[in-house]
Amino acid sequence: MNATSKPITLRRAEKGGTSGSCTPLAARLFACFLFCIFTLFPLSVPAQLRFNFGKESPVRKLQVAEMAISNLYVDSVDEQKLVEDAIRGMLEKLDPHSAYSTAKETEALNEPLEGSFEGIGVQFNLIQDTLLVIQPVINGPSEKVGIVAGDRIVAVDDTAIAGVKMPREEIMRRLRGPKGTKVRLTVVRRGIADKLFFTVTRAKIPVKTIDAVYMLRPQVGYIRISSFGATTYGEFMEGVEKLRQEGMRDLVLDLQENGGGYLQAAVQIANEFLHKNDLIVYTQGRRAPRTDFKGEGNGKLIDGRVVVLVNEFTASAAEIVTGAIQDQDRGQVVGRRTFGKGLVQRPVPFPDGSMMRITVAHYYTPSGRCIQKPYTKGDMEDYARELDNRYKHGELYSADSIHFADSLKFYTLRRHRTVYGGGGIMPDFFVPLDTTQYTRLHRELSAKSIIINADLKYIDNNRKKLQQQYPDFADFIAHYEVPQSLTDEILREGEKQKVKPRDAKELQQTLPYLRLQLKALIARDLWDMTEYFQIMNQVNPIVQKAVTLLVPAKK
Fold first, then answer.
1. Active site residues
2. pTM of the model
3. pLDDT in tens, 468-480
4. What is the dotted CATH code of the domain comprising 210-347+360-430?
């Protein structure tokens, strides 16, 4: 999560730099001086001089240590790694979310949030060591030259990528590249004997942060946000306008599994629901004065009911939106207690493209609750196990297992309802994890990619037939049934990989959800993610609870 403050830029000191910085030449000269002093005259150096290098500045002490190791150590060392390890070592003693990332890691972290990347524009998956195109991006560079769903890309610029066990990351590296550059693809297409060749001009490819937009029920719209990035607000408002044209009055905002992202995107979306000067969130830290973010009063969703869906993987920016709507009594929250990530990170970029993110403040909901769950500085292992502990303590299955101290009691701002701090957002309506759906058999079939691989193979063999038979999604969702042969194939492959049902009961519990998941995956491959969630939400208990709140049962 990024704070609104500008990033600090660290630059190498120029010639004649200020105190506390070392140019490469100065560093070498100082290291040479140290070498001469400690090796030629080790006994003549006064003890006070030998042990007081750090009194002037902790930074100087760190510089001396790095230079001494790189110049005096018995074996050669990688100075870059030495410095990176030192930075990581410092950050590991702080909170769980202060972190260092290399240039490559930083690029990968920022890409989903910045709204685009540069490449050829295809959704793909690997099946039997071959890149299978699931869908080309609409109006993207690949679609424009004629690449279609079901194509297999077997070579990139005359380098084979199929059948050579090339890592996924390496394949992506070859497909991506600067906007305007060209790449030659060799494609195998079902029904055509000869290989096809396409020259694709790379372009900026949008990264969507909204998974699904559709009408859940008459007058009830549904929007699922996967993360909060640079384009999220624009995508969200497009979705709102679409649903309003279809008759939406009330909204289900699904933030399940939303790990957060940009603060500003969260504030923009929360603003759409709140009145002028309604507090959305505030940040405060030791060196960061309190900063309030308030509603502007120009939102398009101030009227109408809203239900926010959350679970234990809802974090950070998603918790900001959830907390604002709950504390302002603007809507109801349904699901399970959220993750509890309420620390504000400030990015500190380095000249080589790497970055350090330092926690500078906490997030607080309008009622004053700190979103961040408790942690012990330096104890990353215990923090990482916190969700497992929720599982073991029964929190995911029963609200009665969750206990809050009176000191954590807060009150919403309009109706003065009791809410609790202590980390994460506790929903107004708790929905337990349904263990009857997610059987051990299903979890293991999923973990070994048996389900997804069977789906890819099936859609590859039947795409044209399905498109002809079900040109309309409404017809597909109403009449399509997963063939028995597909589930049989999954179970056979499971047996080969030693994944078997324990008994007939486990098998019978697994099959209904497995069939529904397969139907949703096939719909995704024929259309998009909206259609996937439209099917999966039929049995999502958190979504169904929201429906009962917004659509009263018929008498």
1. 316, 327, 341
2. 0.81
3. 999 999 999 999 9
4. 3.90.226.10
